[in-house]
Specification:
This is DUF2993 domain-containing protein. This protein is α+β, with helices and mostly antiparallel strands. It has 4 helices and 12 strands. The strands form 2 sheets. It has a 6-stranded antiparallel beta sheet with strand order 1-2-3-4-12-11. A 6-stranded antiparallel beta sheet has the order 5-6-7-8-9-10. A hairpin with a 2-residue loop joins β6 and β7. The mean pLDDT is 83.
Length: 245
């Protein structure tokens, strides 16, 4: 019995040491991965990397991690226009089946899903903020975006009738969707600006617009989008997503 007690004590001690070593190793690996991702994606700040699953060391021995979560506070995404970017807030991606090279210089996830937010202030930069003629003597521009409820965006349009010196502000509810990796805003109904007869295609040049969001980390792409109180909430997805290398 005494020998059995000693054996059990040794097992408990070794098990405790293994857990400590495992947690130290995963913490070190998370830091190294975060630094590598910051360098690869030219991020302004270091992202958070959370390697899930236990034990970590057996996953490393197998050359694959089950689940890795990456959080990036602010990310400047490409817009398809030279020198122009759009800020994405709180980009979070959950990577499954992450395989890495023997020297840990590269890592690729089988699949990735995640979420992100684009504020209305950022999205407004895409809309036509400069007065544009939509009918003889009538100009219009978008002056505000906000949450319209039920997944809609409220688009505030300012119209000016120059001959009368009248300004009129109206709001329309718009649907938002993902089309060809772009956030597309499309008015459900068109605003009435004074008594002027305005062709639908002319007013839609103001109310409807698209924002490309390209070159997201690892090659993930837009999946779905909906309006929310502080901006549009986007879901992203990808396969064969490169975390590094």
């Amino acid at each position: 019995m005494r020998a059995l007690r000693i054996l059990l004590i040794i097992v408990v001690i070794l098990g405790g040491l293994f857990v400590v070593v495992d947690r130290v190793a995963v913490h070190f690996a998370e830091g190294e991965a975060a630094d590598k991702l910051k360098s690869t994606e030219n991020l302004a700040s270091t992202p958070d990397v959370d390697i899930k699953g236990f034990p970590f060391l057996t996953q490393v021995a197998g050359g694959s991690l089950d689940d890795v979560e990456v959080k990036i506070k602010d990310y400047e995404a490409a817009t398809g226009k030279p020198g122009k970017t759009i800020r994405i807030d709180d980009l979070k991606a959950d990577m499954k089946g992450v395989e890495f090279s023997g020297d840990y210089s590269s890592a690729t996830a089988d699949t990735a899903t995640g979420t992100a937010t684009v504020s209305y202030a950022e999205l407004l930069k895409t809309a036509k903020a400069e007065p544009t003629e939509v009918a003889p003597g009538v100009t219009a521009r978008v002056v505000g975006l906000s949450d319209g409820g039920n997944g809609k965006i409220k688009v505030k349009v300012e119209g000016t009738v120059s001959s009368l010196g009248i300004k009129q502000t109206v709001s329309v509810l718009s649907s938002v969707s993902v089309v060809n990796n772009k956030v597309e805003v499309h008015a459900d109904s068109l605003p009435q600006l004074g008594a002027a007869a305005i062709a639908e295609n002319r007013i839609r040049e103001i109310t409807d617009f698209q924002q490309a969001i390209d070159q997201l980390p690892g090659g993930i792409e837009l999946d779905k989008v909906q309006a929310a109180p502080d901006g549009v909430e986007i879901t992203v997805k990808g396969s064969d997503v490169k975390l590094a290398g």
